[in-house]
Specification:
Length: 334
Amino acid sequence: MKIVEYFNTNMSKPKILLSHNDFLPAIIDQLIKMFEVKIINKHMVDSTYQDLLDNIPGAFGLIISGNNILVDEHLIETAGPSLRVVSSTSMGYECIDTNALKKRGIVLGNTVHATTDRVAELTVGLLIATARHFLDANQLLKSGKLPTSLGTGLTNSVVGIIGCGNIGIEVAQMLSGFKLSELLYTSRKPKPEVECLGGQLVSTNDLVGRSDYIILATVLVPETMHIINKDRMALKKPNAVIINVGRGRLINQDDLVDALRTKRIRGAGLDVTTPEPLPLDHPLITMDNVGKSFVALSYLILLDEILLKLLWKKHSLLLIILLQYSITNRCPVK
């Protein structure tokens, strides 16, 4: 298998490096009109730091997905002075050394608003599927048995959202149609969009202790690393359910496994894990009682084809605009 595939090998055009081969053909077709496109011929989960290091010299732009590969100072130095833009299809960019980009005047692109409604829809879907035991019921029916539990609904429950940015606000608005007892949230400052729905700004510990359903929608920064850990697990109600659509490392996964094993919490709906995907021998997949704790491993957000088209349209346009602009100007980092 060729590690790299080339499209439009006109060497007079700026080179764009794509970190894997899972991109939509329509987007590649758009890029090759203006760029020499170089693609790492591996799936996103298989692409490595060394693959980027070997192929980035001379690149005008780098497009990455996910957070499994670091874009550090060494990689940026290896690219050379031609590098003008690093673009991620994720909202978060914790894998990118932003200081190294700033020093060189390289533009950073990420995805903010294009994903909000779809991620929020999938968050609410994952919440209901986990609360109502959809996965477990489906498995029982396929084995010829009737479900023994329908779980619990959202009516009269307390929902807490950790990290009330664009997605958190959208989730809160979608949940306003349910008859919640309380809606809690954490944020650096009050959010009028949530408070007009009856939302209360509280501390993380207060939210964890009071909530029946805890939704993690915050960014991953040093302050939020393992924001859900053994100590906070001890604060939870025994019937609490955790939903994580942020980053896998927001949760100490070993502590989560222990809490599920000992039934200190009722369940977890995880769209993100560490690593992604989980190995088949990971406790979250293999433990019998984890299945009974109604863990849902979805990764659905990565599979929304319309969302992918929106993301790549945005990043293709960013590259084209920067190419035109940077002929005479050095672009500053976002």
